[in-house]
């Protein structure tokens, strides 16, 4: 004789409206209707939703909107936290201090980057040559210069192109014959600061 197991169709009942649900999670979601609770909030506009899926669908509607505007310089930001960190640059406030050297920063992200100078941590790795970097912007710069040789900075006088803006600025001094870096000892001037540093060593050697 074969025994047939009868599975009881257990239901979860709402104690407020007595509606039945097949799962405990569905009941928990339903209860939010009664309590009015909306635990998922949009970081861009603070609009709240009962489900994570509804929040994700809403966030798509923002696309590239920048809703938070600095009332001092009118710069736009996507996130409230980014605006708050930016506003510190206007009032000079630096609430984030390094616990190792006490140097202070206006944003937490800058503090995190600074800490890596103490720890030597380089979490951003180049996928091509495996070289590590402490900052993502340094990794992007490395990739453009070393691996794809991207030269976006073009001289408007001779059309020579450079990887970095600082190299273009130095190059333009050739056209203007400007030499902004002067030796405090003998007064001789140089276009590049590195050349001035090398020159200064000659004075140190004579003393």
Automatic annotation (TrEMBL):
Pfam families listed in its UniProt record: zf-C2H2
GO cellular component: chromosome; nucleus
Domain of life of the organism encoding this protein: Eukaryota
Subcellular location: Nucleus
Keywords: DNA-binding, Metal-binding, Nucleus, Repeat, Transcription, Transcription regulation, Zinc, Zinc-finger
PROSITE patterns: ZINC_FINGER_C2H2_1, ZINC_FINGER_C2H2_2
GO molecular function: chromatin binding; DNA-binding transcription factor activity, RNA polymerase II-specific; RNA polymerase II cis-regulatory region sequence-specific DNA binding; zinc ion binding
BP term (GO), one: positive regulation of DNA-templated transcription
Matching InterPro entries: Znf_C2H2_sf, Znf_C2H2_type
C2H2-type domain location: 12-39, 40-67, 68-95, 96-123, 124-152, 153-180, 181-207
SMART domains for this protein: ZnF_C2H2 (SM00355)
Protein family membership: Belongs to the krueppel C2H2-type zinc-finger protein family.
The name this protein goes by in its record: Zinc finger protein 112
């Amino acid at each position: 004789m074969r025994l047939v197991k009868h599975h009881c169709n257990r239901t979860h009942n709402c104690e407020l409206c007595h509606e039945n649900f097949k799962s405990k999670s569905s009941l928990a979601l339903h209860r939010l209707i009664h309590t009015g609770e909306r635990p998922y909030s949009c970081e861009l506009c603070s609009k709240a939703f009962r489900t994570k899926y509804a929040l994700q669908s809403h966030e798509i509607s923002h696309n590239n909107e920048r809703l938070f505007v600095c009332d001092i310089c009118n710069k736009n930001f996507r996130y409230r936290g980014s605006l708050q960190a930016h506003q510190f640059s206007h009032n000079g406030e630096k609430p984030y201090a390094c616990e190792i050297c006490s140097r202070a920063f206006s944003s937490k992200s800058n503090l995190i980057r600074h800490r890596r100078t103490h720890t030597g941590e380089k979490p951003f790795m180049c996928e091509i040559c495996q070289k590590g970097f402490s900052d993502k912007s340094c990794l992007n710069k490395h990739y453009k210069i070393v691996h794809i040789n991207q030269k976006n900075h073009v001289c408007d006088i001779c059309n020579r192109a450079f990887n970095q803006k600082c190299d273009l600025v130095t190059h333009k001094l050739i056209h203007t014959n400007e030499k902004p870096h002067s030796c405090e000892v003998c007064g001789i001037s140089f276009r590049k600061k590195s050349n001035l540093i090398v020159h200064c060593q000659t004075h140190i050697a004579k003393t």
